[in-house]
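Need tokens for this chain, all 74 residues.
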Amino acid sequence: MKHNKLDLHGVRHHEVRNKVIRLVEDHWGEGLNVEIVTGNSDEMKSIVGNVLDEYNLEYKVGTFFNPNTIITTP
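Here are the structure tokens for all 74 residues:
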């Protein structure tokens, strides 16, 4: 299973939704295992979470080593 990563540093909030949708749709059916780097922005995490919720994807926010990431679980 391939691990994909999307780094949203430098991406404006109004662009995030489309980038996450494209990532999800480009890798749909591959057992989506994606790390999305959001940075410190709570708004960015919320936008990403909303998109993942729309696709009924399971995910966790943050890890012990990096609280500024969202990881989907296949």
